[in-house]
Amino acid sequence: MPKAAYYAVQRGRSTGIYDSWDDCEAQVKGFLGAKYKKFLNRAEAEAFVAGGGPAAPSAAPSTSVAASKNLQATKTPDEDDESGFIVVYTDGACKGNGKNGSVAGVGVWWGPNDPRNIAERCPGDQTNNRAELIAILRMLEETPITPKPLLVKSDSQYSIKCLTEWISKWQSNGFRLADGSPIKNAGIIRCIWSLLGIREASGQKVRFKYVKGHSGHVGNDGADDMANRGALLPILQERDWETEERQLQQQLEALQKKRTRTSFFQANTTTTSKPVTLEPASIASTSKPSSPTKPLTLTPKMQHDIPDTRKPFTPSMHQSPLKVIYAGPPLIPVNPRDVNFDDYADCLLDDEDLANELSD
C-alpha cells in the first residue's frame, strides 16, 4: 500500500496542503515564483507552508519554477510583502452545520475594534459554506475601491477554489456539476464574481490567500469571532441573488464601456505638442523665409490653442437656407494655389441637386 503523501504549497494561487499532485499542480502551474514540495509527514508539510524550510522540487512532475525567478511583477507587490496590499480576513461560522436548527454568521476582520469589522447573520439557508462565501461578498460590498491591491485571507479552501479554479468551468457549463445537477450557492458565487469584475475594471486587483483556521492566527481568529457573533443575531431573509447579479452586471458593463471610451480617447489624443522641423523649401508660403538656410520650426496647436475667430453667418434670401456655423483657420498654413479644386468637384452640389436634397 503506497504511503500517504502531502503536497505543500508555500506560494501559489492558494497555499495549503493537498492530498494529490493534481490538486497541488493546479495551484502552482504557471504561477510566478511558486514554492511547493512533497512530504511524507503532515507536520513537516505544515511547517513548510508556514514558511519553514527551503522550497525543493516535488517528486511529482513540476513546472519550471527556476525559469520564473527572473520574472517579477512590476506593478503588483510581492505576496510575501503584505505592506503593498490592503489585507482583510473573512470567515463564516455555523453551529450545527448540516443539521436542523443550524445557525450561521459571517465575519470580516480588519483589526481590533476597527469600525470596518462586520458581524452579521447569514441570510437564507444556514450552512458553513454559504457563510464563508457571503463573508467575502459582504467585505467586497462594504470596502471602497482603491488602486492599492486587496489581499483577502480565508480559511475556506472551498470559497477560494470557487473563485480561483472552478469558476471558469462553471461559466462554460452553466454552473453545473459533472452529473448535470446545478451547483450549490451559484447565485452567491456569480455575485461575488461580478463584484470582483467591477474592482478589476476600476483598476484594483484582488488576491486570495488560504490561512489555516483555529491555529492561533490573530486575523483569522478575529474574523471567526465576528462570524460567531453574527450567528447570534436575528434571522435574515434570503437575498434575491438573480436580481442582484443582473444589476451588478449592468454596472460592470457600464464601467467596461467607459474604460474602453477612455482608452480610445487617450490613444487618439495628443497630450503634448512636439516641435516639427521642416525645411523652408517644403513649406508652401507666399512669404519669404527670414533665413534661407535656417530650418523653420512649427509647433502644432491643439484645438483649444487656436484663437476663436468664429463669425456667425446668416444667408440672404436668395442664398441656400443652409447655415455656416463658423470657419476656423487651418492648423497648418495652406496656399490656395497648391490646391486642385477640380478634385473636389464631385463633392459640391449645384442648385438643382441642392433643391432636391432639401425637398427630400
From TrEMBL:
GO terms for molecular function: metal ion binding; nucleic acid binding; RNA-DNA hybrid ribonuclease activity. Residues 285-301 have a biased composition (Low complexity). Its cofactor is Mg(2+). Keywords: Endonuclease, Hydrolase, Magnesium, Metal-binding, Nuclease. It holds the Pfam family Cauli_VI. Residues 82-232 form the RNase H type-1 domain. Residues 268-304 are annotated as: Disordered. InterPro entries: Ribosomal_bL9/RNase_H1_N (IPR009027), RNase_H (IPR050092), RNase_H1_N (IPR011320), RNase_H1_N_sf (IPR037056), RNaseH-like_sf (IPR012337), RNaseH_domain (IPR002156), RNaseH_sf (IPR036397). GO terms for biological process: DNA replication, removal of RNA primer. CDD domains: RNase_HI_eukaryote_like. The keyword Transferase does not apply. It catalyses: Endonucleolytic cleavage to 5'-phosphomonoester. Its EC number is 3.1.26.4. Belongs to the RNase H family. PANTHER family: RIBONUCLEASE H1. Endonuclease that specifically degrades the RNA of RNA-DNA hybrids. This is Ribonuclease H. It comes from Panaeolus cyanescens.
